[in-house]
Amino acid sequence: MSLRYGLLGLLAEGPASGYDLARRFQEVLGRIWPAQHPKIYAELRRLADDGLIEVDSEGPRRRTAYRITESGVAEIRRWLAEGDVDHTMRLQPLLRSLFFWLMEPDDLDRHLRREVEFYSGMAEQYSAYAERKDRGEFGTAPPVQSMRVTIEAAVRLSQALADWARWASEHQPPAGHPSTE
Amino acid sequence: MSLRYGLLGLLAEGPASGYDLARRFQEVLGRIWPAQHPKIYAELRRLADDGLIEVDSEGPRRRTAYRITESGVAEIRRWLAEGDVDHTMRLQPLLRSLFFWLMEPDDLDRHLRREVEFYSGMAEQYSAYAERKDRGEFGTAPPVQSMRVTIEAAVRLSQALADWARWASEHQPPAGHPSTE
DNA sequence: AAGCGCATGTAAAGGGTTACATGATTGC
DNA sequence: GCAATCATGTAACCCTTTACATGCGCTT
Q1: Quick one: DSSP state of residue A135?
Q2: Which residues form the Transcription regulator PadR N-terminal domain (chains A, B) (predicted)?
Q3: Which chain B residues are closer than 8 Å to A174 by Cβ?
Q4: Beta carbon of B87 within 7 Å of strand D?
């Protein structure tokens, strides 16, 4: 159900085609809410059937841009204000960590180093993006401000996971250095 | 695919029935990797068909406990060492935050306060659990140590999200107090 | 004219949730 | 005997991903 509202929300910023939306989902939302184009096109049609969006313009190569309708705006506002928040995380790295005890110390070490690298890199990327926003490179329109907030969460979460992975590797009995117990 | 390995990993700790596993998924993994019993029973049968687990014992009320086989242990070890890590997050609260600009300031305020409360509570719950582990209430067996690591991640993530929600409400133009601009 | 990127779609399969259903055992 | 809990399962549905497919328009 969330993709539906993701699309509505993006369209609330202005008209866009399925292709545009797919790109934005990939670029901005890739790690937060992945969505592939088949799902996007299908959902757009359902949104149009329900009268929440309508065709805005048609361009070359069958390009079809949609714009949000009044009831569409009402619907996403309703969702934001009344809809239940889903707090599910479903983080595979955490599921894996439950089974660290099954891993060879060397493999675990390697795994954790990679995780630190991955999440540090992610944190840096998002930080850089946040800085550009803060320098006003994208303007100060409301949608940009909200995106700044989202990016802040991404920064904090990847930072937290990087720190955690570092903590975990220190917390493990170091490989090749059996405890002096 | 991850549920498969989740089940294998839990069975690596010792024999358990589908019912046991469903409870453990709910209690421990509820927020990290939710799984409902129909999926669990189905997956258990597939694991048995593939020879990765086998029936350990049968009890009252058709209870069937499974134990992991040697190839099952090999398979989860292989996954842990070689399988690709999926770093997808898919956090609905972050998707929502992209659209904060569409919300009435009052609704947003209320939403963020609830989020702070929710994640603080979650952080506290996990912290309490971590403390009990640290006091040795659950022993010091390897699976318990790994679980301690997982819980640490849960604590840090919920803390990060609680902090973020607090930051976000301060970052928003406060409702009813228009800026002195 | 060739190749790339734009732009949309279908089909199949996989993964997960919800609703429905059933029967056995335990505790009161 | 009754209610609660244990324990398993089926069916339908929804959401998502992957693979396959097609054709247009722009650039070189």
Answers
A1: T
A2: 7-77
A3: none
A4: no
